Amino acid sequence: MRKYYDVVIIGSGPAGTTTARFAAKNNLKVLLVDKKQELGSPIQCSGAVSRHALEAVDVSPDQEFIHEAIYGFDIYNQDGENKTIDYRHLKPEEYGESENLKPLGYVVDRRRFDRYLMTQAERAGVEVWLKTEGLGYQPNAQGNCEVKLRRFNEEITIETKVLVGADGLQSQVGKWAGFHTHIKLPELASCLQFVVDQVETNGLLEIITGHEWAPGGYAWVFPKGHGYAEIGLGVARTMTEKNAQWHVDHFIKNSFFKERFKNSKVLEIQGGGVPLAAPLKTQYADNMILVGDAARHVNPITGGGIHTALSGGYIAGNFLGDFFKKNLPATAKNLKAYQDLWLDALGNKMWKLYEVKTEIFNNKDLKKRDEMLFETMSDYFSPDSEYKKI
Fold this sequence. Notes:
By secondary structure, the chain is α/β, with parallel strands linked by helices.
């Protein structure tokens, strides 16, 4: 008899493990698979996440995965003029470094963070198969679907009611259902960051805007703990003839931070593609939903994906719990309710952010574009921002 799971999830990043954990907490039989053998690799992002994002999905900040506490932001324009948003000064009764106060967020170690989330999922009852590749899926006559997997070179077919695609950028699972998950080059940021020693930081995430330093994106300097920092940027390859490494070198050697960076020593190099695209318009099919990067649940202005992955996984896992209680068939029509929940919680604001981003980068006047991006970033990170939870 073919092995059956209520839910099979392909992809063990924050979206997949969070979906799995909350589905299991709702008493569902869950299988989580990933073709990788090492969690959280390769590292492609800076790893910043708000405290609120962790608390909202029942993740306790733990020294196991935290590099450094964060207390606010410093947003710079191309010439070095800045707007500081430091919650230690804005709300000193709530935010600070003493025991009775809290940080705004954290820079996390992605490998340890993903392992921590996986451990949470396993302890909730999720079965995990690493080094397992998804090969395809097919709805069957019983209202379930058959998922073909390759585990340690052995092909296995699993039956499930709902397959969750959490397999990241340009999702293969989504392609099985006919979704156009390919991202156009103008909406794919090429990101590169150096982990460096001998660069001072002050508990703030520093965001540097301006075409001169990061065409189509922005540069950053983030604390990483233990005296280290992350210096990186993302660029739209359609807006520059140079690659991301050239721009990082240019930023380090020639920007208004050059004196601060002059003694920096590179310890590690990390990079990859980050989508700055709109969410997928349709994130469900018969017996399938998509979550996280697979559904383009990525902030189109900042490129941040951890917060949206956790939130999307929480929505998906609890939706599945309710869905199974109703004993409904897993048709696309019925699974649309998942996307409706996600749109209400996050998606509508993500669409609005995408429209803001498009307006900025469609402006042909570079000076005006730089002004718009600096103003948008400053507003985005302000305490009064309507996008605080995105």
